């Protein structure tokens, strides 16, 4: 009941929205006074002035405790803290509160009341918080209401002032309307009066203008009438004149007619005279024409008709020809159309060819650039090739000895060559071995010994001169590269030396010349130009003979094949050396330029005729001298500026033979002695070179007997230093010449054992 009363009381005290009403339009408001709210606040403060509640205690906590500890905690929660501010049970004295202890025999009703009291207190404080919030809202609303009321009063005052202003404006408008009506009335009256005045004025002006126009019209009318009368009078006068002329016109017409007839008569007479004259002339012309017509008719009958017939036949023929020509024209037109199509095709082909030409020109330009680059590369490769080629030749040996076995000459010699055995080429050592069996007793073939000889290469009986030149060509190339080269053939007489060196078709000398010409032509593209000169001499009985000298032939005529001056056999030739350039020159010798193979063939043919040969028991055509074909190769490269100078000595030595076997006497004996002496000197020189190479410390002091023979003295620089030497030892396959073969092989082995220093290019 108490809570309900409090709720009703609080609801009755809550502010409500005031209701505005007016009494008699006085503008007063029924909003409550502000003092009412202040009194209400005072009542609220007096009614709700309790301390804040403590936390609520549930019924389970408020039950009787089961033990003393629980009862103590409950009592503590009920009693509160020692200060007594938050105690539920009122306590006037704080000191006594600490000594207060509730009765242990409190009833459960009292405890329930305490719990309910706490709950009510909690609800009270919750409602108090709600009330405080509502009160705050009320204060805010009161402020807003006061503001609204002040604004409303302000607006109300403005409304009253505007109503008064509106009434004053309405009065002003009413007055203005009255003034406007009065003014309109006055203006209408003035306007009517002004219109009447203008109408009277316009009438007066109109009458005045009407009178003026009438006067002007009268004046114009009178002037027109006067002018018309004048014109009428003038026309009447003209009519009278014309009528008078008409009356007098017949006389004038008669006069004029007479004049015209007179003129016509004179003209007629003149015309008749002219006509008569023309008639006479026409008669004469007619007579002439008739005569001419008669003559023409006669001519037509006699001359023109036959001609006409002939011309008709010709015309007929011409028509036929025309038909033929038209047919031909059709055919020619068809042919021309075909030709035009062909021309178009040809034009297309020409365009294609022109395009192809342009492409080819571009290709040629590109190829020219490529060729220039290739030429530069080839020039560099040529220099590299020379260096590598020389290195290869030095590795193979600056002095080499090849052996060649001549095939047997049937039927003079037996084809039994079982005493000769050639082994396969040894690639590891670069040599080839020849085994030869020599019988110790001529009557017994079982008692024999085998001798072995090693050479750089051995050519058997089946190999040709072309096979030989494949090996020799490398040294020929060295001479083109600027090195001194000597190739000589050694062997007994009749062993095939001259065949190897001077055979016209495939000998070493003709093959060498062909190789030189071919190679120099190829080197022209790389900038090399060569001057090729040659000398051909023989050493006969230790005398030098020029084989290119001019001699009278059998018919007594001088052979002018060579350009050198005429020389005799008595001309003296001396050998001169140049130590600085290591070159050799023979005085009073003929030098010829080699420009073609024909020139070379003529030179070789002439030299063979002049060479000294004789018949011996060993060989019917034995060479009795050493022939030396000297080729000078001077090369210049215009692009790189390189120069080279090489000398190639191609030597065909005289046949070595024993005096006992050849049984020569007299002049042949002296020739044989000189040949053997020069060959022996050649062996001594090679032996001395071998010794000097082994004993390098005493090499300069050691004497090498070059001067003991013209052959060794002439070949001095081909055997030392700047040189490459190749010896062919030619042997016979016949068992009858085993001793001569062994002598040749021993000499060749002696040469093969010589080791020469590295070659250098002669420039």
UniProtKB/TrEMBL annotation:
Coiled coil location: 117-186, 308-377
Gene3D superfamilies: Kinesin motor domain
Domain of life: Eukaryota
Kinesin motor domain residues: 398-754
Family matches, as Pfam families: Kinesin
GO molecular function terms noted in the UniProt entry: ATP binding; microtubule binding; microtubule motor activity
A cellular component term, taken from the record's GO annotations: microtubule cytoskeleton
Compositionally biased region (Polar residues): 28-38, 58-75
Family recorded in the similarity comment: Belongs to the TRAFAC class myosin-kinesin ATPase superfamily. Kinesin family.
Designated name of the protein: Kinesin motor domain-containing protein
Species of provenance: Naumovozyma dairenensis (strain ATCC 10597 / BCRC 20456 / CBS 421 / NBRC 0211 / NRRL Y-12639)
Gene this chain is encoded by: NDAI0B05770
